[in-house]
Amino acid sequence: MAQDPLVIFTPSGKRGRFPVGTPVLTAARQLGVDLDSVCGGRGICSKCQITPSYGDFSKHGVHVAQDALSDWNAVEARYDEKRGLKSGRRLGCQAAVQGDVVIDVPPESQVHRQVVRKAATARVIEMDPATRLYYVEVQEPDMHEPTGDLERVARALEAQWDIPEISTEFSTLSKLQPVLRKGGWEITVALHKDDHDAVPRLLAAWPGLHEGGIYGLAIDLGSTTIAAHLTDLDTGEVKASSGIMNPQIRFGEDLMSRVSYAMMNPGGDAEMTRAVREALDALVLEIATEAGIDPSLILETVFVCNPVMHHLLLGIDPVELGQAPFALATSDAMTLTARDLDLKALPPSAQIYILPCIAGHVGADAAAVALSEEPGKSNDLALIVDVGTNAEILLGDKSRVLACSSPTGPAFEGAQISSGQRAAPGAIEAIRIDPVTKEPRFRVIGCDKWSDEDGFAEETAASGITGICGSGIIEAVAELRTAGLMDPSGLIGGPDKTGTERCIPEGRTFSYLVHDASEDGGPRITVTQGDIRAIQLAKSALYAGARLLMDTRGVDKVDRVVLAGAFGAHISPLHAMVLGMIPDVPLDKVTSAGNAAGTGARIALCNLAARREIERVVREITKVETAIEPKFQEHFVAANAIPHATDPFPELKKLVNLPDVSFNSGGDDRGGRRRRKRA
């Protein structure tokens, strides 16, 4: 008997089988997917817009045919005619399941929209921007001196600013004459230099004295989220910060899934390039609106990203990054224009600078972290971990810096977790479990109170308690271990062994019940054995990468640990240590650097010399490739235990007494795997 079609939703990762003809909105509701609708499925509100993806998805083990959803219907056609649907979008209430399908729920269709927590970190940056403003008084044209307007602007710059030569693009040249005449031969020009000794390029001109400023964008293009900081190129002040989900997530949550999509689907790389560029255009307009400026004043953008995102941004097929020797098309820094990347929200002549990559799996984002945190100038041995879907790890001091990338996957960001969600109002972000009563208390995004405090219910009434995000699941797993509800192997015990009815049976294993609002129509939030396994895999990859760098350096411990990235800023150092995410160090030696990649991008945006510095530094960093190092697997297996199978974690033991429990024995089917009896 044929199975019902499989429906997979991204970015949540939730999936289920549904009969042919089931509306996508119905499937989403039954799976608890965060898909909005206020009109009751009548095709009026458009809140339930979704984006189906077609082709082969090796990670999910499905092929999505072009007829996986029902044909475009009259309701969708009418809505598109009156209000417009983005290309590739469908209405979830109208599109019906016909076959296996992968469906992305875009941020604007989510009830609980993600809080992209990538605010700019306060930082003193020496201003030496590549793009500057110059006011000049230009000689009027004279029939006896037949020179062009551009040439007379160049003469004025040489006479008044000692700039002997300039160049320009046609798009700028074509606008120069009316600006000169409107300003009465007094104009302000924006000049850009790739290097201190380079010939400046004329990017834009304004009549008279332009006092509206010019701006640049520092963009951290991540696998899951894209964060941008709009920066005043005169003062370095961050005028606005904004972030959106990376729409490429519908092609695969992790980088190798996206490489696989490009390999298995002709034109898949171009599809992903188009998606991310459209998202960047939307982000530019959003951040300009937020700051109240005209996008035409954004004359420069600096990008930092991992190698796969780097290639897909540039429109380069990332297939070579999916197989040894993981060759980049180029690892050097690049200077382009907005026109080159087909970014329509920016002026065509706007300059684009992309930081250099370190290696095939260690990208410009890691270079930006190195620029921000400067491990090569550290007196003590520092381990810097940029935690994300793909973790970048740096280890170094004044003598030597090493770098690697570790495939942690999206579990740390709430994906592939049974009650997981992105960081949004209503998501559990912190949790504590009483070691005596085994009862939980928690805090959700959008409310400063804990769940056992007066006023919590009232303050969370609007958002509800909707799920658990990355920082919450890390704390939950660590708390299960410290409360004695989970053993070092990651197994949750049953109620008879743990003494609490919150440990509920689920198949052959147990789950821990955090919150149950099912009687009121709300969610039932649990931490399952599968959730713990996902976190174990992610944290093992992170620890193994760090350990591999330590082996290469010939050390068994580090002096300090820096957690970078927006996610790293929200991790509790103690819970990270209990989990075994990072090597054992004194707790006061674990600090957060905030969004260090974004900070590095801002430094490169505001300081031309910093670009030359990081281009030099990356050539001196020792690259370690985790994919081909035999010891990586050995470290990975040992790190599966919580906190670790062989590392004694002496500093952690000074702070926490982890219960000596084991739930992997006895005859209870649901308590774990049975041991085979010897013959």
TrEMBL record:
Q: Which domain of life is it from?
A: Bacteria
Query: SUPFAM superfamilies, alphabetically?
Result: 2Fe-2S ferredoxin-like
| Residues in 2Fe-2S ferredoxin-type domain copies | 5-109
Pfam families, alphabetized: RACo_C_ter (PF14574), RACo_linker (PF17650), Raco_middle (PF17651)
Tell me the Gene3D superfamilies matching this sequence.
3.10.20.30, 3.10.20.880, Domain of unknown function (DUF4445) (3.30.420.480)
Q: Coiled-coil intervals in this record? A: none
| An annotated Gene Ontology molecular function | iron-sulfur cluster binding
Q: What protein name applies here?
A: Na(+)-translocating NADH-quinone reductase subunit F
